[in-house]
Amino acid sequence: MAEAIRPGKLDAMDFLQIDDMLDTEERLLRDTVRQFVAEQVTPYVGDWFDEGIFPKHLIKKMGDLGLLGMHLKGYGCAGTTAVAYGLACTELEAGDSGVRSFVSVQGSLAMYPIWAFGSEEQKQQWLPGMAAGDLVGCFGLTEPDSGSDPGSMRTTARRDGEDWVINGTKMWITNGSIADVAVVWAETDDGIRGFVVPTDTPGFAANKIEKKLSLRASITSELVLVDVRLPADAVLPNVRGLKGPLSCLNEARFGIMFGAVGAARACYESALEYSKERVQFDKPIASFQLTQRKLVEMMVGVNQGMLLAMHLGRKRDEGTLAAEHVNFGKLTNVRMALETAREARSILGANGITLEYPVVRHMNNLESVYTYEGTNEIHTLVLGQAITGISAFA
């Protein structure tokens, strides 16, 4: 006769006991980053957001923790599993999307192409300093008139003797105005190529984009390249075409897939706590049926999102993850996170629009996360093609 099932203890903050899916090393890393965020980010990020300040002093600290390029191997990188990288992104974005964005851009968009497609000399020159937080990188793909269609980029690189000369403009570039190096993608006679561009090269300029209402604790810039002359060895030698930049975007989407759950979790936890303390009609609003429905929907979304991220993370570590799986994860989890933030804001009422609570900050940030590294529409079309075998892009 089968034994009766003994259910585990229910935890409002981890309803499906996803913590039990982590091994000791993963749990230690998660807890270390969670403590870092609690001490170094959460108490101050409302002011950073309000003032439009990126906390540059955290860069070296994140390097010391091994968070920069942490999923890469060698060259001073930590060489963690994909799941460990995802867990770090979850905790960082629970603090703020801007902090997670810095880590994603540094590791997945700037370091990864050098690591995957660069020469040994390029790797040795840049990766150790970037992993340590001594050097900052950015990724130049999007242009003012070229977002979801990167193949239409207007930035060009032409040969001039042994050198390359680059002209063009890149837009919405995270870290751009604080970067020491930019990985810039340009059209050449040999197709799209990637170039490692030191930002002190004559003709290179980065202009900070102001008056943002989202990702305010993050630096976003316009890159302008006017006759930027680079030596022959500045090109990434081991990739041609859109495969290069698109593979980088997929690296970043993987972190976003986890990170969005962190933002959603922070909103859910804030709303749950508030609902128990806020009294109306002589009782806490958590006792009202409509409030409980909102809380349950948020809890279900957060738990489902984390289960999805963990599943896809394990698949990546096993080598069975397809690129379209990441599209699935980014599409689903960012949409869930944005819906969760909006529901949490409604529970907090007027307090929900203040920076005393994290909800409206996450909600505004997630509007950008919903769009960058592939819009919701693009992910939908990728998945549509995957299940029908028919492209609907044109």
Q: Could you explain how this protein is built, in words?
A:
The strands form four sheets. The chain has a four-stranded antiparallel β-sheet, covered by helices on one side. It has a three-stranded mixed β-sheet with strand order 3-6-7, covered by helices on one side. Strands 1-2 form a two-stranded antiparallel sheet. The protein has helices spanning 24-40, 45-51, 58-64, 82-95, 97-117, 120-132, 243-277, 289-318, 323-348, 359-369, 376-388, and strands at residues 73-74, 77-78, 137-140, 156-160, 163-174, 181-188, 191-198, 204-208, 220-230, 279-280, 283-284. It has three domains: 18-132, Acyl-CoA dehydrogenase/oxidase, N-terminal domain (Butyryl-Coa Dehydrogenase, subunit A, domain 1), CATH 1.10.540.10; 137-234, Beta Barrel (Butyryl-CoA Dehydrogenase, subunit A, domain 2), CATH 2.40.110; 243-388, Up-down Bundle (Butyryl-CoA Dehydrogenase, subunit A, domain 3), CATH 1.20.140.10. Helix 4 (82-95) runs antiparallel to helix 5, helix 9 runs antiparallel to helix 10 and helix 9 (323-348) crosses helix 11. The protein has eleven helices and eleven strands. The protein has 394 residues and is of the alpha+beta class.
